[in-house]
Amino acid sequence: MQIDEVDQRIIALLVADARASYADIGAKVSLSAPAVKRRVDRLRSAGVIRGFTAVVDPAAVGWNTEAFVELFCTGRTTPAQIAVATRRHPEVVGSYTVSGEADALVHLRAADIGHLEQALERLRAEPFVTSTRSMIVLSRLVESPTVVPAPTPG
């Protein structure tokens, strides 16, 4: 699918405020509201825009502790097995296969250190996990909901 500069601007505006009206977006990209809607519908159909969501501040709901955990797994553990297992844990924000020594990196959020410890114990109990290495987040420095690519010269 071709994504032009106007599509990229629409995506950036939706990332900044998914509740913006088509008319508001249209005014910023010099299109009518129906034209913006057609473009958004096309981007959704193509899977470029996968959905719209509310971004919740974890601290506002009491989940103040955050960590990244390296998982070390048995030799034949597949990414699919890791995905299925980590989805079972409500504290898991994301899980990723990675290069380097670890097999996967898991992002956790918890209410406090005790809750984080419980989540880690449950994660370590997965049958394929041989060991973990944890890093607790002290402060967030940069956070972006997504990256919108720069226009391709052409």
Automatic annotation (TrEMBL):
Record-annotated HTH asnC-type domain positions: 3-64
UniProt keyword terms in alphabetical order: DNA-binding, Transcription, Transcription regulation
Organism whose genome encodes this protein: Micromonospora sonneratiae
Claim: DNA-binding is one of the keywords in the record: yes
Keyword Repeat among record annotations: no
InterPro entries for the chain: AsnC-type_HTH_dom, Dimeric_a/b-barrel, Tscrpt_reg_AsnC-like, Tscrpt_reg_AsnC/Lrp_C, WH-like_DNA-bd_sf, WH_DNA-bd_sf
Pfam families: AsnC_trans_reg (PF01037), HTH_AsnC-type (PF13404)
Protein name: Lrp/AsnC family transcriptional regulator
